[in-house]
Structures
1.
Amino acid sequence: MSAGSTVSRRLFPRRRTAIAVALGFLVVVIFQISLLLGAPFGAAALGGANAGTLPAELRMVSAVSAVIWVVAAVIVLARGGLGMRVPPALSRWGTWVLVGYLALGVLMNLASSSPWERFGWAPFTAVLFGLTLLLALSEREGPPAGPTGVPR
């Protein structure tokens, strides 16, 4: 690896990327909680087979999903060096698990019969996939860089 690529990887805006991904996950959490509480967004969830309010058993799926996405947000914030108390190995490997999960999510949303999922959630998930992949590929954040790109 050349010195130039080392410096550019060190300057990668890891914290901002982690915040952006966590905010994206927060959107998903809010959506899942709204489904849990009976919002009529069933056409945009779970393949769109339940237009309107989801049945009770699927609302529980939304509750579990909301918890999973909160945990995902904690993992990416830890990977971004934002003070979450998560072991480094868990944040590193957890971020890679999320990359795979989001890739699968993109494919599933594209294959959905629901236009909400194909044209809304698929692009949204693709952006989260790309940002999470960048975060997973980034090195652990070191000391702040000076004006020349060299750590102080």
Note: The two ends are 21 Å apart (CA to CA).
2.
Amino acid sequence: MSETTVDLPQHVFTLFAVFRLSSSHPVVLDGRDVPGIVQELEDVVDVIGDEGVTVRGWYDASGLRSDADLMVWLRGGAGEDLQWALRELRRSSLLKPLIRTWGAVGVLDGSEAPDEEEPALWLAVRAPDAPLETPSTLEADDLSGLARLLADHRLEGRHAAGVDAEVYVGRLIEPVEIIEVLQ
């Protein structure tokens, strides 16, 4: 009897991008435009999919924050791939007029999150009475170490009843850091 091994990526990166509608450049669609615009977006999703980036979801974020109407969840093997994929999506007719208000990038151990796994948390599902929260701080450059630490906590949390959560590791990027990079 031979064992079959599956090569999982060492890390899986995820990106959440939130957009809002523009009051000065509203999205105006004629009913005849819709099939072509939807097809264009589906074509872009196929192109980025061919490059290893998965669109995990499109979420209606209106009513949750004053600066949020749409959240896009991407997943891939490298942060740079996610950035590229988001730029490709933003060039589409449907997303071009939207204003990006915020986003987050995270990384987790690839063995914990196969692409076919359904997201554990949905906006329409009530949060558990006792969520597993593990605030942790490590050096900003040690995201892999933080991912391992949180993976251990997640595995321990699975033994508790009702705990089912995704764990993502990220780093807050201050606006001043963005300016420094652009200079």
Note: The helical segments are 34-50, 79-90, 143-157, 175-182.
3.
Amino acid sequence: MSAQRPGRRAAPKPSRFGGFKVTRNGKPPAGRRIAGPGDTTTSIPVVQEPLRESEPMAVHPDPLDRPLLDSDPFGIRAALSTPAAPAPVAPPVLPPAVAPVLPEVTLPAAGPVVNHVSQDAVVGAVPPVVEPVVDLAPAPLDLPPAPDPDFRAPEGYVAEPPVPVAVDRERSEASLQRRRAARARLFFWSCLLLAGTMLLGAAALHRGPEWLDGAGAVCVLATYAWAVMARTGGRQVVFSVLAVAIGVTAVAWDEPILRSGAAVLTCVTSALLAVVLTVPARTFLAAVREVVVATAIASIGAFATVGFEPVASTTRFEYVTLAVGFLLMFALVWRFAAGLHGLGTRGLVIVVVGSLVLAVSLVYTELLRSYGGGGLARSGDDLAEWMRSTIGAVPRPLTIFLGVPALVWGVHMRARRRQGWWVCAFGAAATLPVAQRLVNLDTSYVEAGLQTAYSVALGLVVGYLIIRLDLAFTGQRGARARAAEEAHAVRPEPPRFSSL
């Protein structure tokens, strides 16, 4: 055998199965066999065992070929044999249309163009192309819906009456008219009060005729009566006319009992107005402001009280005004503080303690005046004379320890709780003595003013201590906590010149 040349296929290697010969049914296979190198035809054994035929695979019929029923009543076979519809063909995508580019055209020079806004002549100006403005504002929401033509009202159906469009406008106009009327009334009564104060001042300085004090007292009494009724929600016109009638009758008839009665009415009205005209105070400085306002109102009432020239004794006059004033004050506070159910435990303690202090002070004063020993009474008179000669006046203990502290603490508490009105009720112990101070003919105007100033100043100190104790036991601890508590003390209450 020659060596392998390039391009020719190499001879196959001999196999170990090459000595076996396979026949089918003892017959040699058709065709010729190519003997390998060194092999003979007689040396190859013949395998006489026939090949086993493989078993044919079982053919399972198609379930759809089996007859369901005599026919196809539900159309299942027809539905399954129907070919699926072809998928929809998407439309071809067309390229966007491109606007043709037009060549620029130069317009010839035109005459002057006048702008309709500025009326300036522009030579050769071309009016710009303005795009149409589309109003995208939403439709108004207050328009009534369109009626449904297919709506059929059931039996007993009542359609709502249409609301007029000008209802809000009418309401605003009505409220504006009410505010204007209230301002006009306030201006009128303020002018009347100013006129009465000027008349009383001229009478106190002995300038002018003798009837100035009576006329000024009537003006102040009428104004204070209207203010009390306006603040407490009463009948303003009725009580104002009644106050004017009482004042004019007392001045015209010149009877001692009428003058004394008009003076008592003026004193009580002034003290009540001084208390009810205060507003809640979140801080101590605001409470001081309210005390000053109440003292000023009661001081004007003091001049009006003495303007009627009462002839009753000073002690009897003070007791009558204190009794009537506290009775009316508690009646008003009963309305403002919603009765006793809004009083609470602390409010009840305050009312009881205040009543005891008031009763004890009055009883002690009366006993000292009537049954005091010579030495004790003489020592008291000596102390009063020393204070008059040293500081100019003697402060009132009732005002220092009850009236002013109650008023300060009450307006401070009203900014947080309604029961502050019960505390303010004892503020009448500060305003009533101020209004009745000039009735005593032995007291001059300067001494009365100094006595009021000293009593209010010392009472403010006592009130400050009471507020600090109240906040220490029931309030927040720390400066920041107290500042936050003052910021959130916003109990709603009408303004000073509004009805409670």
Note: Residues 179 and 185 are 10 Å apart (CA to CA).
4.
Amino acid sequence: MAKELRKVNEDQTSGFKIDLSNIGSVVVMWNSQKMPGRIPDNVAHDVFYEIFQVSFTQELLMADQYLYEVKPDEHEDEELANELDASSCEERNLKVMGAIPGMLDGGDLGFGLSNDSLHQRSLYRLHCVMKGWSWSASMAISSLPLADRLEGPTVLPLDEIDEAEYHIAFHYICSFTDFFKCAPVLPH
């Protein structure tokens, strides 16, 4: 898999010519604003935050493609099965993206939200996504009741949400690392 990823990276960067000797003269732009000179700390923070969000989202979608298995129906003809598979994959991608706060509704991205209700719902959706992963170990039995309590309908106390987040993050890291043999990018 490492060879395949290297090849994709090489293919996507071919044709780019970067002159590093002149990099100091490049004027940086962020959100349509030119940043001559030193980049302010808050802008650097926003850039890194964006990189982490995009990386986490892409890794989560990729992990789901490998760890979630669509179960074929033996009684469907091949053409119908292919159409249903494509539809199922699209629905699954929407389910995965729905687990990331702000991904589908355009709101604030990230799990470090001040809105406890949205934070709880997003964690529960991520838990549901990972419950469907047939190519990874199940979440620890001791963690399941806490993660299942995130479903609601009431908002849990913040310490319980934090504890559930710890268990879900631990399961995500273990599943990702076990399958891909490297650590995932984690959201803030």
Note: Residues 41-67 form the longest helix (27 residues).
